[in-house]
Amino acid sequence: MDLGLKGKTALVTGAGSQTGYGRGIVMSLAGAGCKIITVDIDLKGAQQTAAEAEDLGVEVLALQADVSNRAEVDTMVAAGLARFGQIDILVNNAGTSSRLKPFVEMTRADWDLDIQVNLYGQMNMAQAVLPHMISRGYGRIINFSGGRGIPNISIYGAAKAGVMAFTEALAREVASAGIIVNGIGPGLGETGLVQHAPKEFLEQNRQRSTLKRLCKPEDVGPVVAFLASDVCSYMTGQFIHLSTF
Questions:
Q1: Which is the catalytic residue, given 21, 138, 156, 234?
Q2: For 63-121, how does the pLDDT look when each residue is reduced to its tens digit (9 = 90+)?
Q3: Is 156 assigned a catalytic role?
Q4: CA dihedral of residues 236, 221, 92, 237 (deg, nearest 10)
């Protein structure tokens, strides 16, 4: 099926990790013909992903930004618009997590990290691109959530629950401007996000999964491509959960 993505410009945050969902999303969108802006706090990682996407024959730009820093976000979005003239698709994939800890042992610094990157980061990105999308009467925003009910990452889960509520409300706000806002809950994967997690934690969550395996980047990219496309023209304010936990 032709998703009609050729020639559109997609900005993907958290695109620097070579084991993360962002890279898989970039490759799916580039394979469908999108121009790509890869964004990561790690510029070298964003550049590596961009080089791989460029091999698919699309225009690519790699930029650095900490999504929790609004000034960096605004500068990065301006650079993307200067290069391509438009941002049709925003994929809010960037995320992080403090170390696994019982809630009673978490510090305010842990809280701030989980909330500022995982919730404020997606809000910063959406607010930075929305004026441009509203002026054009078109846009697709895909937010990321997860971590529901998983012990020892309670604030991460709380931030992501906020993303779900934000997604539904924002979808209602901007629908009349021609902007579709949806979300995806891919489930836990063996990505950089859990690189410090003990094997027992990963195995427990593998067993919690209906399919008895963790999510892979190649599971996520095609779903994001659908949500980013004009084929997805009626569904908005919804979350797709790839597997039940």
A1: 156
A2: 999 999 999 999 999 999 999 999 999 999 999 888 889 999 999 999 999 999 999 99
A3: yes
A4: 10
